[in-house]
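Our example copied in:
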Amino acid sequence: MATCGSPENDFELMVECAPDAIYIADGQRFIFVNNAFVRMMGATSRDQLTGSLVFARIHPAYHALIHERVDLIHVEEKSSGLKDVVYLKMDGTPVDVESSAVPFHFHGISAAMVILRDITVRKRAEEELQRVYGELEKRVIERTAELNKTQEAYRKANEKLNLLSSITRHDINNQLLVLRSYLAFLEKEQLPPTLTEYLKRAETASQNISVMIQFTKEYENVGVNAPVWQNCRTLIETAVKQISLGNLLVKNDVPEYVEVLGDPLIIKVFYNLTDNAIRYGGKITTIHFSMQESDDTCQILCEDDGDGIAVEDKDKIFERGFGKNTGLGLYLSREILEITSIKIRETGETGNGARFEMTVPKESYRSTKSETE
């Protein structure tokens, strides 16, 4: 227990130099207060507080807490740690304080020394912060509800559009079937050369329409499902098996441990690259898939030894509708790859084959090879 053994004026000088409000109480009444406490309470002098009831200056909501502290200090002679308490000024205005108390002998009286620090500003800041946080939380909840509502409306609208597209494709395919049947009947007839040529053009047009319908079905699913990690070598092998290669050689040198993060339709990219090479490569004999790694990216390469692509067409080949056929394959490939920020471009030398580079950002590829391998 702390004891004041110094002359009164020395003690008062010491507590007056303290930056915090200090008072000494016998459990019921103030027996000493410093000027900082007088100012905190809005009193005009020490006499207004000395001898008055301590509980008159404490908010009723904290009386039970103070009674516990009085018992702790006066009965058990133990210090009381920091507590947040609300005091009342002389005019009743509340003051938030941080309070600590220790047992103390003052001129032979068993008392408690209480040190107070005004935390009103901090409390108000905390309350304001809590209010702002509450408002933000409310707005987030409201915005989330609006977003969910919008997403649900979008989902329903998308379902209706998909249903409409599906029905439309079905109806068009039925009409194409009828058209092809009539064209097949006409092929059996003895037609003049001019009409025979028109018949072939009509058959080609019907085939193109069929390809376009298939494209709309595939494009409808691009970006619908979340990207997944897929083994790149396996994707290439699976895509190649779906194509009639004839005498064409496909070399797959992409390491077995490489995985790319891509739309579930990414296999279409490797299918389209292989199919296009066969269709338009001319003297092509070999298609070669490989990989190159750098610090920030990974490049998946598709190279062939065919005729290559004209310089003026290198950028156009990825545009919708450009090309000798429907012009949809490479356009669809670019759209699929861009979902996970994979870029594709053609860098081959005209006359020496095509070379497609797929640049995969670091976050969209990974190695499944263990460090010990």
